[in-house]
Amino acid sequence: MATVSFTIDGKNVMAEEGTSLLEAAKSAGIEIPHLCYMEGLATGACRLCVVEVEGQKNLAASCVFPVANKLVVKTATERVIRARKNVIELLLSDHPLDCMTCEKSGACGLEKYAYELGVTGSRFAGERHHYPLDDTNPFFFRDYNKCILCGRCVLACNDVQFVEAINFAHRGFGCKIAAPYDRSLKDSTCIFCGQCVASCPTGALVEKSRCAAGREWDLQKVTTTCSYCGVGCTLELSVKDGRIVKVTTPADAVVNKGRLCVKGRFGWDYVHSPERLTAPLIRVGEKGEGKFREATWDEALDLVARKFSEIKSESGSDSLACLSSAKCTNEENYLVQKFVRAVLGTNNVDHCARL
Amino acid sequence: MAGLATTFGSGAMTSSISELRDTDCIFVIGSNTSENHPIIGLEVMEGVRHGKTKLIVADPRRIRMVDFASLWLRQKPGTDVALLNGLLNIIILENLVDTEFIAGRTEGFEEVKKLVAEYTPETTSRITGVPVDDLKEAARLYAKSPKACILFAMGITQHTTGTDNVMAIANLAMATGHVGKEGSGVCPLRGQNNVQGACDMGALPNVLPGYQPVTDAAARAKLEQAWGTSLPDKPGLTLMEMMAAAEHGKVRGMYIMGEEPAINDPNSTHVRAALKKLDFLVVQNIFLGETGKYADVVLPGASFAEKDGTFTNTERRIQRVRQAIPALGQCKPDWVITSGIASRMGYPMNYRHPSEIMEEIAGVTPIYGGVHYDRLDKSGLQWPCRSREDAGTKYLHKDSFSRGKGKFMPVAYKEAFELPDAEYPIIFSTGRILYHWHGGTMSRQSKGLAEIAPEAMVEISPVDAAKLKLADGDIAELASRRGKIQAKVKVTDESPDGVAFMTFHFTEAPANLLTVDALDPVAKIPELKVCAIKMEKVWAKPASGE
Q1: What is the pLDDT of residue B544?
Q2: H or E element: which one contains A238?
Q3: What is B2-189's CATH topology?
Q4: Furthest-apart CA atoms within chain A: distance in Å
Q5: Does domain B195-382 have CATH number 3.40.50.740?
């Protein structure tokens, strides 16, 4: 593809033909404010990314405006700033100003740009939506009152996850994002991957798990690898007070590139299940009955070591066997097979690779 | 993955996941990719949606990947070898083979050529039920594409002919030169998050870490020196063999870490009897589970969020696991527990952190030789990675196969172990769904997942439903020669006629009470995809309004 050369804010920039102004600016280190644009996907809906292009009468939406040779672009003129403030004011004219209790506060695009542009409210008083909170699925809330109709969730559903469960429905003031026939997502083709939640720039789509569990800026993020299937998606666990609050993934994650499935994004709460074992147990009832008493680690491990040693000396090493685990780490699998071979003295070690 | 080990010299996925969006043709066989490896499913769809990739799906069920396919081959369950041989025969007949690749990189082609000649399009079509024209189109599409990948999973391996199936796939890839090149490869998709790593680490009865055979005296000697002990030279028992040995009193003590054989294993009545018979059973897990109920001692492990370590994914990528929260109650990471037992048995294991264990692994495992924690932070490393200077390996078998020359293996079609008959007229097949994982130990403890998919369903076709007088929502009893269970009926045209499909996630309807424990003779994988059952209604869902 041909390379074109042009100017942004007085800076000479080269970009491949077909690139949008917004993306070209970004690679030149100039961030243009945007709400509806997502990496590689754009609808041009929000108009926050407008810029001045010399020779153009109207401001151009930089996310859908292709670069061309010799363009002269200004991203922060007075006219541009005025237009952006107007966009934010129009959005706020039908948006609850409840940032102090909103779960998205601290990570909300609308809040960020209102702050940066110094917009504290709206001059445009008019009709406002009063939708009830959509609580029809176990994973996330949809608060239509906070939806700015940017269409990112639709892009995420259609063009990132190829599910096509949601789209724009109705017209004008009644326009909203919905599954076919405005039914519950449970009755649609939705697979609850939560890509829509990850893409939402406001508090319209919020993980249930994170509600009242901590403000965005108080969450500690730990990067790790998913515990379900063999794809090995990168997870970012948001943690507070020893509990996982939500799970996201970086856009540049090497394997999954910003995408997750329902298990990775929402299926981690087994970690906090009340059914978890919390102490070593020793059997008191019949085998298979499941009756145990709690024991200390020393008592339990001493018993294990003694019984394994007894069986080994009575019946030989090959009367012992071990199942290791495809769920455990490499280091744990290595140690278990080392234990079986070097300590028990047998090669009777396997795991569920065949199942 | 014994099939690929024989033909290529390594059982691992040859390509990288990121190559899939950039290949010309993907042939998915025996993999319900979008349900079981959702993000790999997306990589395939990415290429298809952007017009880059043509997709062929071979599956008896109308899985979601079919929606993205140019061609859907609906073979009868258990006829994969016939299908693959038939495709190769067409490729040979139409001169679409890569003669240069066959001559330079492989051996044994002539025997395979002779054998597959018997699988004429008409014969293949009769065995598999796939129309001749579709067979020809698929063969041409795969062979003529400049770059092509084959994806497969348990739908290929969980048969008594599993190793044959895999070797037939390898034959197809080698004959067309679609392996060992960027964007071309053979991709077994590994199920569990770290099944690749568990195999790499030697949690297998016949190999030491890094696939060094236990029978190899030199490999043993190296580890004996590193570990300061002598090592047994006789291959051990596989999982199914262990259970049989336990039932016969030959294995008396067992240590089970992070596994649920009482649910996941075929013919699980036998497994439970075996566990009960043991003199001493230690179960180490995060939940008690079914298996835990048979334990003498239960040891509480830490979850993935409570420990440091590494997992190795299906594309051989070693990635970091990082502790995010403190261990629950008295739970301990499994490596700490195992070390405690070993030390008490007179073999001190004093590791302070998993990174120290990885240093030891790197020292004794050539394919992990260059793996150190300080190199894993951003994107991990793909093995083989033999030294600190080695950046890892994106795709395998580039200039030569791991075993030298790729080995063609003639494999003839054999029928499944148990076929339907007058008494048990329906083929029973098991698998997974997106919302649950394996025996459900983890996923059924997730509230949301349990709400979306609360119960076991047996899927049958509308034709079978009419024949059996079953409707959506009825409860049916399913019986095989080994046991019976009840499950709710879902009538769907995703199921082919004559086949009932069920997941094995639910302990209250354990599908593995029905399945047969007939094993693939080489890989010892049970035939979970085909057995014979009968079905009858035990409860009819009331008509709505009643």
Answers
A1: 67
A2: strand A234-240
A3: Dimethylsulfoxide Reductase; domain 2 (3.40.228)
A4: 93
A5: yes
**Tens of pLDDT, residues B116-161:** 999 999 999 999 999 999 999 999 999 999 999 999 998 888 888 8
**Chain B residue at shortest CA distance from A193:** B38
**How far A98 CA lies from chain B's nearest CA (Å)?**
28
Q: How far apart are CA B27 and CA B46, in angstroms?
A: 15
Residues of A in contact with B154 (CB under 8 A): 355
DSSP output for A126-182: -----PPPB--SSSEEE-GGG-----HHHHIIIIIS-----EEES-GGG-EEESGGG
| HSE of A348, CA atoms in CB hemisphere, 13 A | 27
- At A204-213, the pLDDT tens digits run 999 999 999 9
Would you say the ipTM is above 0.85?
yes
Residue A344: DSSP 8-state: I
| Chain A hits for B232, Cβ within 8 Å | 317, 341, 345-347
Q: What is the mean pLDDT of each run of 10 residues along chain B (546 residues)?
A: 85 94 95 94 96 96 95 94 97 97 95 96 97 98 97 88 92 96 94 93 96 95 96 94 94 94 75 93 95 96 97 97 97 97 97 97 97 95 96 93 93 90 92 79 83 88 94 93 91 92 82 83 80 91 68
Q: Tell me: the pLDDT tens digits for A255-277? A: 999 999 999 999 999 999 999 99
Structural domain spans, chain B? 2-189, 195-382, 426-539
Q: Is B352 on the interface with A (CB under 8 A)?
A: no
Interface touch B331/A224, C-beta < 8 Å: no
> Among A113, A44, A120, A62, which residue's Cα sits nearest to residue A84?
A113
Q: How many CB atoms lie within 10 A of CB A130?
A: 8
pLDDT tens track for A107-128: 999 999 999 999 998 889 889 9
- Residue where the block lists tokens 């906070």: A146
Instruction: Please count the residue pairs, one from chain A and one from chain B, whose beta carbons lie less than 8 angstroms apart.
Output: 473
Q: Does B293 touch chain A (CB under 8 A)?
A: yes
Task: Name chain B contacts of A40, Cβ cutoff 8 Å.
Answer: none
Query: Whole-angstrom Cα distance, residue A339 to residue B345?
Result: 10
* Cβ contacts of B325 on chain A, cutoff 8 Å: 237, 239, 242-244, 271
CATH 2.40.40.20 given to domain B426-539: yes
- A326 interaction partners in chain B (CB closer than 8 Å): 191-195, 197-198, 258
CATH fold of A124-272 reads Alpha-Beta Plaits (3.30.70)
- Identify the pLDDT of residue B1: 59
> Which residues numbered 424-483 in B keep a CB inside 8 Å of some CB on A?
434-435, 437-438, 441-443, 445-449, 451-452
The residue of chain A nearest to residue B376, with distances taken between CA atoms, is A224
Distance from CA of A136 to the nearest CA of B (A): 11
What does DSSP assign to residue B542? P
Numbered ranges of CATH 3.10.20.740 in chain A: 3-76
B29–A contact, CB cutoff 8 A: no
Residues of chain A with CATH 3.30.70.20: 124-272
Contact A254 B252 (CB under 8 A): no
pLDDT, average across residues A307-334: 96
> By the CB < 8 Å criterion, does B507 face chain A?
no
Q: State CA B19 to chain mean position distance.
A: 21
Residue B445: what pLDDT? Answer: 83
Q: In chain B, what residues touch A236 (CB-CB under 8 Å)?
A: none
| Closest chain B residue to A221, measured at CA | B324
Fold adopted by A3-76: Ubiquitin-like (UB roll) (3.10.20)
Q: Does B153 touch chain A (CB under 8 A)?
A: no
Closest approach of A173 to chain B, Cα-based (Å): 32
Residue B39: the pLDDT is 97
Nearest to A304 among B49, B265, B297 (CB): B297
Nearest to B176 by CA among B148, B134, B136: B148
